[in-house]
Design goal:
mainly alpha; single chain; Growth Hormone, Chain: A
Length: about 400
């Protein structure tokens, strides 16, 4: 097995275990906030804290990875992923909202940093195979979908959702990221070092500033697709658990919905790169819009799972295409900045949508939330489709 493939598989394995922690944070973050504070109107605040912390962390992390290498930064993300669940568990144990918010924020920072693994994987491959390289790593996350129903679901079976009942699952979530951290030490040499093998003659990166990078033809379109798909997906996903409970479903059933959503996000990702990137961006955002709109009528576990599966698949189509395009339009010394900035904007936008979505759901109900989310996915799809030119040719040809 060559070094590139070995590193890609190790990065994928790290994300398998990271997804165990994130499943719990996504499925029960809102419910934990309500259980500890007793205030239902702030249910969107938990996901917002998670995403804002991720946004604040990923920009500096991207710049640090350009300077120090990818793996030291990714390993730092795993360390934060161990600390976050432990802090949240302590907040549940002593019924401290401040500690719970701090823990969720630390989990969010960990997630955004560890997800830089996808760009690290892509740049190790030849230009024509970068989408494939990213897909290999992200496909690892789908294996983590088993953690919810097999591990976390039984923990919540027929139990009252009180703060003390949440301590053990949050502590257990930290164990997953310990495994991810240990695996990450096997990735060597650093992906940035490997990427230096490939020429980037189409991009003069020696002194390019970020504002110059984002003005390149193709970059704005890819950034809009990436930000829109990520923000709408996370805004809906983070509220799905509370919406399901609001429909009368048991908390343990939430993990079925989230697991199928993860399958949608990553299950078909190995095949995503085989269609044009512009087509993929538009199709993915459109599928997200349809899936969100379907939540107006689909209230059962099976129905919500189908909608969340479609939401995840739409994200996969649009986000992977957009991210691969961004990597191709930047040189190795720029990629951390460009991807980190895009992730930062995505997380801030997702946080705003989670906060607004919580207010909309509390005040107007499920239908208003579903239709608003559908519109927010459809608008950028229409803009990309109607723009005069598609993304510029990237450094790679695949």
């Amino acid at each position: 097995m060559n070094v590139v493939r070995r590193n890609a598989l190790l990065l994928a394995a790290g994300l398998v275990f990271q997804s165990g922690m994130i499943q719990l944070a996504v499925a029960l973050g809102t419910v934990t906030i309500v259980a500890v504070t007793g205030v239902k109107s702030i249910l969107g605040l938990g996901p917002a804290v998670f995403l804002i912390a991720g946004a604040l962390a990923v920009g500096p992390a991207g710049r640090a990875s350009d300077r120090f290498g990818r793996m030291p930064v990714i390993r730092t993300g795993f360390v934060l992923g161990i600390a976050g669940p432990c802090i949240t568990a302590l907040g549940c144990a002593v019924v401290s909202p401040a500690l719970v918010f701090l823990g969720l924020g630390t989990c969010g920072a960990a997630q955004s940093i560890v997800l830089l693994s996808r760009a690290a994987a892509a740049e190790m491959f030849p230009p024509e195979r970068r989408a494939r390289g990213m897909s290999i790593v992200l496909f690892g996350v789908v294996s983590g979908a088993i953690w919810g129903p097999l591990v976390f679901g039984p923990m919540f079976s027929h139990r009252a959702l009180t703060p003390d009942q949440l301590v053990r699952p949050w502590l257990f979530a930290g164990v997953f990221t310990v495994a991810g951290l240990l695996i990450s030490f096997g990735v060597r040499p650093d992906p940035k070092t490997i990427s230096a093998r490939y020429g980037t003659a189409d991009v003069d990166a020696t002194k390019a500033r970020l504002r110059e990078i984002v003005r390149r033809p193709g970059v704005p379109t890819a950034m809009i697709a990436a930000v829109s798909s990520f923000a709408v997906m996370t805004g809906v996903m983070n509220l799905a658990g509370y919406v399901a409970v609001g429909h009368g479903h048991h908390e343990g059933d939430v993990f079925t919905i989230i697991s199928l959503h993860i399958v949608g996000m990553y299950g078909l990702i190995l095949f995503i790169g085989r269609i044009g990137r512009r087509t993929s961006m538009v199709a993915g955002l459109t599928l997200m819009a349809v899936s969100n709109a379907a939540l107006v009528w689909l209230h059962s576990i099976a129905g919500m799972s189908l909608s969340l599966f479609g939401l995840g698949l739409g994200w996969s189509l649009s986000y992977v295409a957009a991210s691969t395009e961004l990597i191709g339009l930047a040189a190795p010394s720029e990629r951390g900045r460009l991807v980190g900035t895009t992730d930062m904007l995505s997380a801030f936008t997702g946080a705003a949508l989670a906060l607004a979505g919580g207010v909309v759901y509390t005040g107007e109900g499920n239908a208003a939330l579903a239709l608003t989310s559908a519109g927010l996915a459809l608008l950028p799809a229409a803009w990309i489709l109607g723009s005069a030119a598609g993304p510029a040719p990237a450094v790679e040809t695949g």
